[in-house]
Amino acid sequence: MLSTVERAFQVLHLFTPLEPVWGATAVAGRLQVPKSCAHELLQTLVHLGVLDRLPRGQFRLGALNLLGALNAGHPWLPAARWAMHELARLSGEAAHLSVVQGGTLLHLEGVQAAGEPWPASRPARVPPQCSAMGKVLLCAWPWPDVERLIERQGLAGLTVNSIVTPDELQTELQRIRERGYAYDMEEAFPGVCCIAAPLRGPAGEVLAAISVSAPTDHFYQHKSRWRALLLEVCDHASRTLATPALAGA
């Protein structure tokens, strides 16, 4: 018989980008356990801060738990932080680090130009197609997976410039794959523009997205220089991760 800990890990493994939300009935069916057992496991994981409770008896992986897991088990995080801080230092603007979780962009960390942490009490979630970082991360997904994401949660816009149709998103993702970076031209927040590029692992896989953002007028004045800086620091960090001796230094 499986222990409670083993069952809890089975529950956690159910939460994926394509299936980010689960309820007790669905968990019970997938794990073939009584619904009361599934509900008790979910409640325990909420109490431990691993899961967040949603309305209507549903649950999702907790954002703060993800941050803890990243700090504890992802060797790429120091390289990502270095790139983020270096970008903020060289550009004189805010830089950010994000991943996609549960179909939304999860902002992990940010740093202001002065090197101070971004003032946020909890990671912010936005639809990925509304931001440069989210679009960079979606480029790593096969298009059928993106289509399933759209079918499940739609394409909600945050501003008048947000992408809100599948065709527009598919065209934009292809453009980003070809050039290696993405823009957010007031698509997430009015008056703010952003450029993002991927951090890649040893096999070329996309691990996270790093960005620099600024008020629109200032962004247009400096975007060519910031694009060069962004690509330089992301490339350096990615090459570091591809070199075991450097990654362990």
Structure description:
The chain is built from 10 helices and 9 strands. With 249 residues, it is an alpha+beta fold. It has 2 domains: 4-61, Arc Repressor Mutant, subunit A; 65-247, GAF domain (Beta-Lactamase). Strands 6-5-4-9-8-7 form a 6-stranded antiparallel beta sheet, with helices on both faces. The protein is globular and about 60 Å long. 35% of the residues are buried. GO terms for molecular function: DNA binding; DNA-binding transcription factor activity. Residues 62-249 form the IclR-ED domain. Keywords: DNA-binding, Transcription, Transcription regulation.
Query: What count of domains describes the coordinates?
Result: 2
| N-C termini distance | 43 Å
* pLDDT averaged over residues: 83
Quickly name the level 1 CATH class of the largest domain: Alpha Beta
Based on Cα principal axes, name the global outline. globular
CATH architecture of the largest domain: 2-Layer Sandwich
At the fourth CATH level, what is the homologous superfamily of the largest domain?
GAF domain
